[in-house]
Design a protein that fits this description.
By secondary structure, the chain is an all-alpha fold. Helix content is 79%, strand content 0%. The protein contains 8 helices and no strands. Helix 2 runs antiparallel to helix 3, helix 3 runs antiparallel to helix 4 and helix 5 runs antiparallel to helix 6. The chain is flat and about 70 Å long. The N and C termini lie far apart (59 Å).
Length: 211
């Protein structure tokens, strides 16, 4: 066994295979991370808010987990492969900011942008989008050379409170007046908290259970 492990170590530490193995490990890590993130979330949401038999609920949980894991693994594979191709064909032989953007663009379209979108894909993209907006806001302030230092600090200190307040104002307004536009799982959660709480017919349905 030691001899086999030593041989494998020699192979995976070969510099000529570094690019290929980095893609393989990116896929592995994407799959693992997706499964770790989605499984507990899906388990809780399905068993709390979905009806059906145990087998049906478990099928939904494993389907969502596999889809999340597969999509992150596929994106990592496409993204890292394109970066390797850019680096190999670039006159400078190194990665540029444009390469990173284009690799993300192609991967995002191929994995998350095409076809009928599942709730899993929508949640991933919305999660990423929210963090991109926040990061770009911070970046714009950091690079705002013409902005006075005092104003820059004020914007930095208040960016999150404003973002949080506007996000909740927006989602509550949309749910109240245009609920058909809200993503299904979010709409279900909001109904449970803000609509079901208006109805009870006994002490039990007031505090001990929802219905």
């Amino acid at each position: 066994m030691d001899g086999i492990e030593a041989s494998l170590d020699k192979i995976v530490l070969d510099p000529q295979l570094a690019d290929l193995l980095a893609i393989v490990k990116g896929a592995r890590n994407g799959f693992t991370y997706g499964a770790k993130i989605r499984f507990p979330h899906a388990l809780v949401m399905v068993f709390l808010f979905r009806s059906g038999t145990l087998q049906e609920k478990l099928r939904i949980v494993f389907k969502a987990t596999f889809q999340h894991a597969r999509n992150l693994a596929t994106f990592a594979t496409i993204y890292k492969t394109i970066l390797v191709l850019f680096r190999k064909t670039s006159p400078e032989g190194k990665e540029s900011s444009l390469h990173t953007f284009l690799a993300g663009l192609v991967g995002g379209y191929m994995v998350f942008g095409r076809g009928i979108q599942s709730s899993v894909n929508q949640q991933i993209v919305i999660y990423v989008f929210a963090r991109v907006v926040l990061a770009l806001a911070r970046l714009s302030v950091q690079r705002g050379g013409a902005i006075p230092r005092e104003l820059r600090e004020r914007v930095t200190n208040n960016a999150w409170p404003v973002f949080a307040a506007l996000s909740w104002a927006g989602v509550m307004w949309l749910y109240r007046w245009h609920p058909e536009t809200i993503q299904p799982s979010l709409k279900s959660s909001m109904k449970y908290i803000y609509v079901d709480s208006n109805h009870w017919d006994s002490f039990k349905t007031l505090l001990l259970r929802n219905r």
